[in-house]
């Protein structure tokens, strides 16, 4: 049996594949109103999702890029809502400035407290992060309840994030949590609607760390 295929890839070189992908994204997306630095984030989100609609739905607080770069270069941690986000973020680029990626959702004390209060681990993990990770970048790709709790803590002065990357995916409260984030007067990157997820949160943080690295 012949398993050969007539299809041949344009290239098998990783760097060339990425560069070609970004060229195609730029061409297909067409005109946009993003700044040059914001567009670096948009490109990586589309690259991670192959979803132009999602890319066009991204919204940036005016200070978002500056705040993200500043947090990374100051060695602030990245707080991920779930392990999937933690795994995908480039650790070496953060470590260069003394930063790391933290996720609290599976901590024993978080699980115990969530059970005691009959609430989600995502909510309790954000409360713990607020106590331990002042000035952090919060990368929320899965849990709308985590984003809503973070918004509440910010409003009450109990959390001081450097940047909120709020892109949870889903049908229950995902879009609504992002609408609430848009009302917040802190730096954020989010998107409109139900789409989002771990790859989007990861791509956003990785784009920011690349921008931070390019500043020297």
UniProtKB/TrEMBL annotation:
SUPFAM superfamilies: Precorrin-8X methylmutase CbiC/CobH. GO terms for molecular function: precorrin-8X methylmutase activity. Pathway: Cofactor biosynthesis; adenosylcobalamin biosynthesis. Keywords: Cobalamin biosynthesis, Isomerase. One of its GO terms (biological process) is cobalamin biosynthetic process. It comes from the Bacteria. Residues 16-209 form the Cobalamin biosynthesis precorrin-8X methylmutase CobH/CbiC domain. PANTHER family: COBALT-PRECORRIN-8 METHYLMUTASE (PTHR43588:SF1). Belongs to the CobH/CbiC family. This is Precorrin-8X methylmutase. It comes from Paenibacillus elgii.
